[in-house]
Amino acid sequence: MSYPLTRVLTLLELLQANVRLTGTELAGRLDTDVRTVRRYIAHLRDLGIPVEAERGRHGGYRLARGYRMPPLVLSNDEALAVVLGLLAAERLGMGTAAPAGAGALVKIERVLPHTLREPLAAMRETLSFTADAVIGQAPGTGVLLALAQASRTRTTVGIRHRSWRDEDTERDIDPYGVVFHTGRWYVVGNDHLRDGLRTFRIDRIASVTPRAGHFTVPDGFDPAVHLTSTLAKGEYRWEVEVTVHGPLDEIARRLPRSVVTLTAQPTGVLVRGRAERLDGMAHMLASLEWPFTIHRPDELRHALQNLADQLAEAARRPSSP
Q1: Residue 252's pLDDT is what?
Q2: Tell me, what's the pLDDT at 2?
Q3: The domain 233-314: what is its CATH number?
Q4: Fold assignment, 141-222
């Protein structure tokens, strides 16, 4: 039987903060009933936490005398690393349940000594980012952890997945790896239903069930490389091929691999990609410092000409008095 982890942990904090609480008081604090509180208490005991029950008029629940959860002891560098990690995860859209990061920060700051708490709070309140925050698609915590564990142990799992067309399917997959990319979590692996490599957004996976089978990841397989290559070849209206006459390593730093694939050639770098609209591709190419040659489609030339006309018009526009 599974238990709401947040409520069980809240119950533990209530017991640590109070000498004694009745079942009715705990039920009120947790917004549940006394019978459920008893199940949460039993779960804490199964975890080895000594919760005592006292009967009678003044009875209730309490932690065993002298028992306290061990304090969180972190050095300045360790505490800063944890706080920065939580802030960065929120900024990058890497979080799972929305309040989890904020709750973790509050708990960490509460148990740290004052000499560490105040500087870290100042860091949290004054830190600025040059990059815009990413609005992530948060997956279920249990689903994400189950996929990571299955990938580590090379265990086949069954998933319930909803496609972007809102079609629900159940299938078995061999999860080769979990990848975070631009605000979304993905799992890459062998799909038994389609008998081939597939990529699934984890926020669209409703459940994960372990299977008896095991698998082996192909030698040299890189889930992140496969993901970015797959996204670059997505189903879009236009197929684009352009040779950029510049160095591969510099071009690779300027063009996102989620949008294009790059192939070194004697005359430069062949850039292949797909786009729903060509004006965005025109802006991307115009931002490069190297000349380029368009192979297809011809409509991309018109998009570039439109962009050039807009820029020329802006250059001729007189300034306001």
Answers
A1: 84
A2: 45
A3: 3.30.70
A4: SH3 type barrels. (2.30.30)
